[in-house]
Amino acid sequence: xxxxxxxxxxxxxxxxxxxxxxxxxxxxxxxxxxxxxxxxxxxxxxxxxxxxxxxxxxxxxxxxxxxxxxxxx
Length: 73
Known about the structure:
Oligomer: single chain
Distance between the termini: 43 Å
Strand content: 35-45%
Number of helices: 0
Number of strands: 5
Helix content: under 10%
């Protein structure tokens, strides 16, 4: 059995299949309420170009972009 490589295959211009859309990186602002798959509910206390700092009441964690496991409430 072979495994697939980590890089996607090249897409041919004449291919009838649609390309995969670019992942949308959600934007967060100060005081946004969020939920995280691991840490639960929290509030954004800091934002910079590479991520967001979130207060989850029992700990403060910096989550880097892209925010795959965190969503805005």
